[in-house]
Fold:
Amino acid sequence: YPGLFKALVRLFRKPPADPESDHWINVLLLPKNVVLRHVLRLRKELYGDEKFLETPPQCKLQPKRLYTLSTRPGRESVLVQPKEAEFDAESYDNYLPTFQVVYENFMKYIKLSLRDGGSNNVWRRQVCLSTAGVRRSYGPTRQNVGPSEHLKEIRADFIEGISGPVLKSLLDKLLEINVLSDAEREAVEGERTRREKARVLVDMVRNKGDDASSEMIRSLCELDPFFYEHLRLM
Structure:
């Protein structure tokens, strides 16, 4: 298609202020050469409580062409606004949302599809919406626990159950998002067995506190949703 530009779809989730408030996902359509750290810095300055949702962002869009965003679950439980919007190939400074996705009840996953005027899918992803950063209620006999305590509780199952390939991908991911340093990653990989690597990793991350533990839980959700559910991390 002539006139197509390489572009990025960036997602930011705004957690509800209280249990009665709505959840928001801000969807930004940006030119490919926009630097992510600049987007993160400005969005944090403007909306400090947002959570960046990392998912493969690449697509090809046509400037000034109208696009629509659809979701699954659909319109019965999710509102997308506006109904259609143009891609601005010169949006280098504002980093404002092109679409907003609003929903009431927590979902573990949401599927997002970006379509052009001819209803062709130009970008489609399943997005993990982890509650890792939110304290959860386990009923009247149990106090709420944070992410680091939660990792401690599922520690044994994590060590026994995580596969070698997922463990390697998790290490790569935690290094990429600066939860682990190069030296820490090498220390984990220096262990002889998969179980020992998993043990060193989970203890290393949970000892860093809730922020690091939250990032590990979210990353695991993206890499292996089935194991994530098995560990009852949702």
Notes: The longest strand covers residues 5-14. The beta strands are 5-14, 23-31, 51-53, 58-61, 66-72, 78-81, 85-86, 99-103, 109-116, 121-128. The CA atoms of residues 42 and 138 lie 36 Å apart. The domain at 147-230 is CATH 1.10.533.10 (Death Domain, Fas).
